[in-house]
Amino acid sequence: MQPIVLALAGNPNAGKTTLFNALTGARQHVGNYPGVTVERKEGEYRGNGFSAVIVDLPGTYSLTAYSEEEVVARDFLALEKPAAVINIVDAANLERNLYLTCQLLELKLPIVVALNMMDVARDRGMTIDVDKLATLLGVPVVPIIARSGQGLDRLMQTVKKVVEQPAAASDPDKIRISYGDDIDRILLDMTSRIREQGLLADKYPPRWVALKVIENDETLLGEIEERAPELAAELKSEADRVNDHLVKTYDTYSEAVIADHRYGFIKGILKRGVITHRYDENRLYTSDRIDKVLTNRFAGPVIMLGVLYTIYYVTFSLSALPVSWVESFFNGLSGLLNSSLPDGALKSLLISGIINGVGGVLGFIPLIMLMFFCIAIIEDSGYLARVSFMMDRIFRIFGLHGSSVMAYIVSGGIAGGCAVPGVMATRTLRSPKERMATLLTVPFMNCGAKLPILALLIGAFFADHRSLYMFGFTLLSWVIALVAAKILRLTVLRGAPTPFVMELPPYRFPTFKGLAIHTWERTWQYIKKAGTVILAISILLWAMMTYPGLPPDQAARFDRERNRIVEQYRGEKKELQLKMLESRREAAALRASAAGRLGVALEKVTWLCGFKWRTNIALIGGFAAKEVVVSTLGTAYSMGQVDTGDPVSLSRRLARDPDWNPLVALSTLLFMVFYAPCFVTVVCIARESGSWKWAFFSIAYSTTIAFLLALMVYQGGRLLGF
Ligand code: GDP
Ligand code: MG
Predict the structure, then answer these.
(1) What is the pTM of this model?
(2) What is the mean pLDDT of residues 207-230?
């Protein structure tokens, strides 16, 4: 027997995840929707005498095709025709939440409304007449408190009834929203034509198709064009006509008129005594009172900086210890292999290729987790929405949206994030162009892997102004990212900003479970995506830096030298001499390797910015993972294993080397911070944008910007006589 499929739909933050977890417990399965990056969460419900598969749809405010989430949710409902939709609605924000409900009703799906957050509504002095709401909507409404599990049994009993007898229990036909005379008339006409031709009859109800055509829904129009090009053209021209008419008479578009009427419909329902306030309505709720302070024009930004700085501080100070544990574990593992395996390619591959590469990623996890935990706190409590709200005004200037701020922070906007989850955090952005502009510029942030290089070069050349330079580079990364986004929005991603009102959800006390889930979700994305790719890439990079190896005559020379040392010296002195020889040999081998040759060849261009071949090799390595830059520089300057040894001596070594001076260091830093994102990020950009074209564009765009910056600073500095 086919299992019964139920869909869980609702606005972001309505409590979907909480309800989903409460209903399915541990019986969950996470996958991806085919072809897109949106996660598909499924779980099994058993209880109340029936079992069903529940699919947790992505949280959406609407079913227009603005974002991937909305398209996924819509396609799922239309194609897989769930036996019932559990529409979770935040009782404390009924008006906004019912917008989605209206659209679900228009899709003529069997719906049960789960009226969540009844506790919050009660605390705010609201009483909701549930029966009246159910009557007015024409579907069953069950009050619940997902967090405590209250009402879930009744909810599922109701769902069972709807599944068994959809017609009797739920009557979506009952409501028919009027969209005003102009639209209603054309809607009627289009609906009957669509019904006659059976257009998309397998997927959507005819009236809904007509409505979407009038709303100018491009995804759907595309679908219609494929199936019935003639009808599509007719419908489109009718839609255009009514749109023109509305613009002339009301100065608004059909889309806006439709949205207005939907809200009007909801307001109408709510006004009919569904909600009564115990307190008088003008009273400030707790959230509003907190907002008076936290989003205050003057105090707000100061508090925001304080909060962000606290996250920065907590993340770095608390993670130091666990990071060092992971590091020493991998160092121990290297040491063990080093002493137990015979010298040769296998040993080198295991230690330099695999353990260094994977260890570099895993070593990072405590820090990342802690940072994501902090972000989950400000996100779940509702504060992040305030940060976005305050940043919105600034971001708009650069053609972005306030919600972009999240992606930048996760990527390292405060310092020490990772662009991989940052790229994924852009999913919350609804406008494709704003999203793409954010996606392409988040890698400019100072992710955690860039910090060691900043520390190394700043320590070597600008030690007297260490924190100033660190802070300067953080600030600069924001400036460059925003300007780069603006350039994109003026050229390849031109277009008007989406009219999307920022909303401020009420403040809530986060639960530990919720925080743990959110932290783990993001960390897991990082491990999964970074972990798999980084292994392949670090092996490739290892091969590039190892082969073809020293030419025979040079190798013979090193061997002769070695023999001489063995004969000439004794004891500690011998060890030291051999060690130095070994580093020199490694450096020579690196220069002779494929990466070394490429580095030398690149000098023809990079001399303009002051980079020598050794720096070039490190930058090539940095494309695989920015962590690699420091260790490669170490090898190139024959410092042996700096990553496990003593980075201070590398910085002293660089400070004395004729290749380097403060100007070169500055130009290198600029290039390093802004050039191509690491390979893993590039892969994620390709996946998130749906095409490799954008991934390559990202590499080219950022490398060009980095090169120009380094060029300007280096040549400018030379002119000024530094
Ligand atoms: P989602 O974005 O729809 O998945 O929402 P979540 O399930 O992550 O819930 C958002 C926040 O609301 C979390 O902090 C939950 O703990 C909280 N929450 C969920 N249901 C309830 C409820 O019934 N009452 C209260 N007070 N909080 C809830
Ligand atoms: Mg969720």
Answers:
(1) 0.59
(2) 89
- What pLDDT does 721 receive? 82
pLDDT, tens only, 118-169: 999 888 888 899 998 998 888 999 999 999 999 999 999 999 999 988 776 5
Does the beta carbon of 114 sit less than 6 angstroms from any atom of ligand 1? Answer: no
24 ligand 1 Cβ < 6 A: no
Q: Which ligand 1 atom sits closest to the C-alpha of 117?
A: 23
Task: Ligand 1 pocket test: pick from 69, 86, 124, 147 the residue with the most ligand atoms within 8 Å of its Cβ.
Answer: 147
Which-ligand-closest: CA of 516?
Answer: 1
CA of 17 to the centre of ligand 2 (A): 4
Report CA(147)–ligand 1 centroid distance (Å). Answer: 6
DSSP 413: I
**pLDDT above 90: residue 388:** no
The finding on whether 514 has its CB within 6 A of some atom of ligand 1 is yes
As a whole number of Å, the CA-based R_g of the chain is: 30
382 close to ligand 1 (CB < 6 Angstrom): no
Cis peptide bond prior to 548, omega within 30° of 0: yes
Does position 675 have pLDDT exceeding 90, yes or no?
yes
**CB atoms closer than 10 angstroms to residue 30:** 12
Which residues are CB-contacts of 425 (< 8 A; sequence separation ≥ 6)?
406, 407, 410, 411
3-state DSSP assignment of residue 126: strand
* φ, ψ (nearest 5 deg) of residue 275: -110, 130
Pocket test for ligand 1, best of 16, 18, 23, 54 (most atoms within 8 A of CB): 18
508 CB-contact burial (10 Å; exposed 0-12 / middle 13-18 / buried 19+): middle
What is the number of other CB atoms lying within 10 angstroms of the CB of residue 507? 19
Beta-carbon contacts of residue 501 (< 8 Å; ≥ 6 apart): none
The pair of structure tokens assigned to 21 is 């977890």
Paired with 116 in beta bridges are 90
CA of 514 to the centre of ligand 2 (A): 9
> Which atom in ligand 1 lies closest to the alpha carbon of residue 380?
14
Ligand index nearest the alpha carbon of residue 148: 1
Contact 16, 8 (CB under 8 A): yes
> pLDDT tens-digit profile of 423-469?
877 876 767 889 999 999 999 999 888 888 888 898 889 988 888 88
Instruction: Answer whether 120 contacts ligand 1 (Cβ < 6 A).
Output: yes
157 vs 284: CA distance, rounded Å: 38
Q: Which residue has the tokens 């129009």?
A: 221
- Local structure of 41: helix, strand or coil: strand
* Smallest CA separation from ligand 1 atom 14, residue: 510
The packing angle between helices 229-250 and 254-269, to 10°, is 70
Percent of the chain with pLDDT over 90: 28
Closest-lying ligand 1 atom to the alpha carbon of residue 120: 26
8 A C-beta contact, residue 136 and residue 171 = no
Banded model confidence at residue 200, pLDDT cuts 50, 70, 90: confident
